[in-house]
Amino acid sequence: MENPVATLATKTPTVESSPKSLRILCFGDSLTSGYSEFGYSHHPYAKQIREKLKEALPDTQATVDVAGQAGDQVIAGQFLKRMKGICAKVKDAPYDWIIVLGGTNDLGWSETADKIYEALGLASDSEGTPTRDRLMLLSEKVWKVALDTGANVLALSVLEAEYTSGDIVQRRKELNNLIAYHQEDRLYSLDLCAAVPYFTMNDVTRETIWDDGLHLTAKGYEMMGNVIATKLLELINSVTRPPVVNKTVAE
């Protein structure tokens, strides 16, 4: 029988120079908390990241925290408030990497791809000199709050789901394209949707990986964690953590 977790390349990348310490935050909704079996069990993908980091960076003191809130939304939910609160609490020891997965619930509530993307990281007024109003607008974005701590951000695309009514499939594609083509210093993206698909999996694999058509099983979150860890280790091997950003205001 096909091993679903082994269907993706999960070989741990080699890291040439190991950092002494590494602080990572996995931020998002129920897919980050590892929600499964109608909430009776949770299997955060962060567990797999911890294991892969320990394997690849045995001399690095790694911390991987989880901030996943079931049902939360980027637009109408607490995404921005939660990100601000977490970043404020760790300002003396900020994260090196913040992994963000958001938009699943917004799509379910019929929000457009453009509005979700704007709330994540695009200021609607994207032209001109960084005036005070412009910087205030930028600061009210999920990714921007994370970046302003000096962290690198890994933005994940939104997973598929069994529910396909209306135009949700098209809106998801549009959102994932916007995430993939976003250009900003220290912000990287990973096409999680392509790496952990729903519709192109055979029936046996889908039964093992997917729980309720929206969330994953323990094996599914393991697969998800393997994919993210592989990308993260590749980035760690090529990225040096910069200092905290200093904002310049033009009056």
Descriptive notes:
The protein is α/β, with parallel strands linked by helices. The chain contains 11 helices and 7 strands. The protein has helices spanning 30-33, 46-56, 79-89, 104-108, 113-120, 132-139, 142-147, 168-180, 192-195, 203-209, 218-236; strands spanning 21-28, 35-36, 41-42, 61-68, 97-101, 152-156, 187-190. Helix 2 packs across helix 11 (218-236) and helix 5 packs parallel to helix 8 (168-180). The protein is globular and about 50 Å long.
Secondary-structure map:
Blueprint lengths: L20 E8 L1 H4 L1 E2 L4 E2 L3 H11 L4 E8 L10 H11 L7 E5 L2 H5 L4 H8 L11 H8 L2 H6 L4 E5 L11 H13 L6 E4 L1 H4 L7 H7 L8 H19 L15
Parallel strand pairs: 1-4, 1-5, 5-6, 6-7
Antiparallel strand pairs: 2-3
Helix pairs in contact: 2-11, 5-8
Compose a concise summary of this entry:
This protein is an alpha/beta fold and 251 residues long. It contains eleven helices and seven strands.
Strand segment count: 7
Strand order of the largest sheet: 4-1-5-6-7
Instruction: Report the order of strands and helices.
Output: EHEEHEHEHHHHEHEHHH
- Extract low-pLDDT stretches: 1-9, 124-132, 246-251
Q: How many helical elements?
A: 11
How is the main sheet built? 5 strands, parallel
Structural class: alpha/beta
Binned, the helix content reads 25-40%
Distance between the termini: 65 Å
Name the shape in a single word.
globular
The proportion of residues in beta strands is 5-15%
The radius of gyration computed from the alpha-carbon positions, rounded to a whole number of angstroms, is: 18 Å
Average pLDDT value? 88
